[in-house]
Write a structure and sequence with these properties.
Strand order of the largest sheet: 1-2-3
CATH superfamily of the largest domain: Response regulator
Low-confidence stretches: none
Distance between the termini: 16 Å
Radius of gyration: 17 Å
Shape: elongated
Number of strands: 3
Length: 151
């Protein structure tokens, strides 16, 4: 699971938990997705030394905290007033995509997720169909753009 998925899962099982995401991603799509998933603080790793304590205090007081490095991305998202396309993949499809992008075979994916190889292959086929992507290399590029894996 990546940070966004982990945050979503935390909020699903414990809706009152306040989360702060520590990340290297300063792109608008990551920031807005994190906020949609319930993250209360968004701290960039390159500013962690100065921002993390401020973020913890602000979030504990019931507020939000965004590293100064992401303020521009948030402002641009608000000003553009264009909604980002919603990720068409289910959580399980994102997990399968992440594992495939990490070089795991269908059998490995099945083993890691506790599902049959046939089910893993069905998830793979469904995500390829949804994304209109027909080769593994393109799946990896998509996963990198979505922040599921690091290049």
């Amino acid at each position: 699971m990546n940070g966004l998925e982990s945050s979503g899962e935390i909020h699903r099982v414990s809706p009152h938990t306040k989360t702060i995401l520590l990340t290297r991603h300063d792109e608008e799509q990551y920031v807005t997705e994190a906020l949609r998933m319930g993250v209360k603080g968004y701290v960039l790793k390159n500013q962690a030394a100065t921002d993390l304590v401020h973020a913890i205090h602000q979030v504990c007081r019931g507020g939000f905290y965004l590293s100064p490095g992401v303020s521009r991305a948030v402002a641009e998202a608000l000003l553009s007033k264009t909604a980002r396309p919603v990720d068409p993949l289910t959580s399980r499809e994102r997990q399968v995509l992440q594992l495939i992008s990490e070089g795991k075979s269908t059998k490995d994916v099945a083993c890691l997720l506790g599902i049959s190889a046939k089910t893993a292959e069905s998830h793979r086929a469904r995500l390829m169909h949804k994304l209109d992507i027909h080769e593994t290399a393109s799946l990896v590029r998509y996963a990198i753009r979505r922040g599921l894996i690091q290049p």
